[in-house]
Fold this protein.
Amino acid sequence: MFITSIKTAALATAIVIATAGASMAATWAYVDHDANVRKNHSNASQPINTVYEGDKVKVIGQWNNWYKLQIPGPDGWVKASVLDFDYYDDGPVYPVKPGYGFGSFCVDGKGAQFCIGGGTGY
């Protein structure tokens, strides 16, 4: 009985990890206007870099209405209003929207961020 429980837990963990891997895929956006890139997802956080209007940036994470960018120099966070997700060179982009409500769980770790549950926020 104990071995069956361990196998079930291991299988459930593997499914969660596999599902999370798909949601960690990066997307691209254009910068709408010049903006400071901040160390954390807060207006009070220290500016550590800058993005400029027209820059194409890789979005690697999200926290509510903040997006984490992978850019030359230190990676960091900008508010959603700085970015344009509608189109980029290869066609339309559809970003993952933040989940709201009970059951949302997001992890923002070194080089990765993923959310489980809570819907898509559309």
User: Anything to note?
Assistant: The mean pLDDT is 73. The chain has one domain: 2-116. The longest helix spans residues 2-23.
